From TrEMBL:
Residues 71-93 have a biased composition (Basic and acidic residues). Residues 56-70 have a biased composition (Low complexity). Residues 45-55 have a biased composition (Polar residues). It comes from the Bacteria. This is Uncharacterized protein. Residues 45-93 are annotated as: Disordered. It comes from Kribbella steppae.
């Protein structure tokens, strides 16, 4: 301990004290730099907090806006309204949609022979489908006020079918008459129509045709 306080050597004591002062100063500077590097300096958070802050009440509010994306715009352009109404081709014909004619294939036949009636349909406006059967179509042969023959008795004479009826395009079906009278149930063995003038008329869904005359000879 005495050697630290009283340096021993051939040099003057002041030289040794000067050297010791330099060593102590170097150690102090090194310690200061270590503390400065690893633990010193200002806290970045405190520095940021100490800076000027913006008052939130003065910040202008910006309303959010929504801009359609490219895919949404494309969807809007490509989407089309769904059609729920029936197209004319799928619409069922009613009596008011049609004009109907019953035309004898021959204007003169021999008594007891078969005569075909051509039942022709014309559309009044839009295209439609006519369901032909004995429930919708009736064909009648008259002589004055005398009922000679009718599909109400002989429904099998009407062939069940479906006709597409369009304006300007005629559609037709054929109904054969056996040249004889008819009765309920269309029983066979009925008498043949006598020579004379007869008329035929057709009715489809309450729409009547004009009468067409022919002769039995």
């Amino acid at each position: 301990m005495s050697s630290l306080l009283r340096p021993v050597g051939h040099l003057p004591a002041s030289v040794y004290w000067f050297r010791r002062g330099l060593v102590l100063a170097a150690l102090a500077l090194l310690l200061f730099l270590i503390l400065r590097l690893f633990g010193g300096g200002e806290d970045p958070q405190n520095t940021a907090a100490s800076g000027p802050q913006q008052d939130p009440t003065t910040t202008p509010s910006v309303a959010p806006t929504t801009t359609p994306t490219a895919s949404e715009k494309k969807t809007e352009k490509t989407e089309k309204p769904v059609k729920t109404s029936e197209t004319p081709r799928d619409t069922k014909c009613e009596g008011n949609d049609l004009r109907i004619e019953a035309l004898p294939a021959n204007r003169k036949i021999v008594a007891g022979s078969v005569l075909n009636f051509v039942i022709r349909f014309d559309a009044v406006a839009d295209e439609c489908k006519a369901s032909i059967d004995s429930g919708e179509l009736t064909v009648t042969v008259m002589s004055g006020n005398d009922l000679i023959w009718t599909t109400t008795h002989c429904g099998q004479a009407i062939q069940r079918t479906t006709l597409v009826v369009a304006k300007g395009k005629q559609a037709a079906t054929t109904v054969p008459w056996n040249g004889r009278r008819s009765g309920p149930g269309c029983l066979p063995g009925q008498p043949a129509a006598k020579p004379g003038t007869y008329v035929v008329k057709a009715v489809f869904d309450d729409r009547e045709s004009t009468v067409q005359a022919f002769q039995v000879v």
